[in-house]
Design brief:
mainly beta; Hepatocyte Growth Factor
Length: 220
């Protein structure tokens, strides 16, 4: 596994997502699955994780930057170590900002069209697509999946099912792709039966500490 991949396995699920006051920002452990989007405050610029595996920045209908991972990418994650990464579903890192070693960093979709990774006030990486700030009265929804390790969100379940492999992000993906789902909890094998379990929720229950469980919320 690459250095980026090791960072993901060890760190990326280690912290609960920090803040979600606005969804122009990806905080540590925030994920983008197929169709999920981060929108600039003015609503004109947006970052989209496309169903074809490509992470693309749009100005209106025009693509201004892309990770060039079409046909391979599974999801994007702002890792807790400060690295923003696109992974395959086989956990191979195929694109990253190369900014690991900077915990508590964040990615910001700015009103000037620039996608910037900040550590404190320092810009560590940018898409270099800045231009004029543009506003619009039509604002698409942001949609971001926050992932929380060692957390249970008990209650609010509308469905639960076994997962053939112990993969918490599979459960996160199922929630992200279901319009009814507002939150989820993944239960490892051996707790509620021989297989891993995924619970999808139509409400956002409170958090409780639960070693080994992984929960999350869809933020808009």
């Amino acid at each position: 596994m690459s250095r980026v991949g090791v960072a993901f396995a060890v760190i990326s699920l280690a912290l609960v997502s920090g803040a979600h006051a606005q969804q122009s920002v990806l905080w540590g452990n925030d994920h983008l699955f197929a169709g999920q989007t981060v929108v600039a405050p003015s609503c004109y610029y947006r970052l989209v994780m496309q169903a074809d595996g490509n992470l693309v920045l749009y100005a209106g209908r025009d693509a201004t930057w892309a990770s060039d991972t079409w046909g391979r990418g599974g999801y994007a994650v702002m890792q807790a170590d400060g690295n923003f990464v696109v992974y395959t579903w086989g956990d191979e890192a195929i694109w990253s900002t190369g900014t690991w070693g900077n915990p508590y960093s964040r990615v910001y979709m700015q009103d000037d069209g620039n996608l910037v990774l900040y550590h404190g006030a320092d810009a560590l990486w940018a898409s270099d697509t800045y231009g004029e700030p543009v506003g619009t009265t039509t604002c698409p929804w942001s949609s971001v999946t926050g992932v929380e390790t060692n957390v249970n969100r008990y209650g609010g379940d509308y469905t639960g099912f076994d997962i053939s492999q112990p993969r918490p992000l599979w459960c996160a993906y199922y929630c992200a792709e279901d319009s009814r789902c507002l939150a989820f909890t993944y239960v490892p094998p051996g707790i509620q039966g021989p297989y891993a379990k995924c619970w999808l929720k139509s409400t956002v229950p409170g958090q409780s500490y639960a070693p080994g469980l992984v929960s999350g919320v869809i933020y808009h």
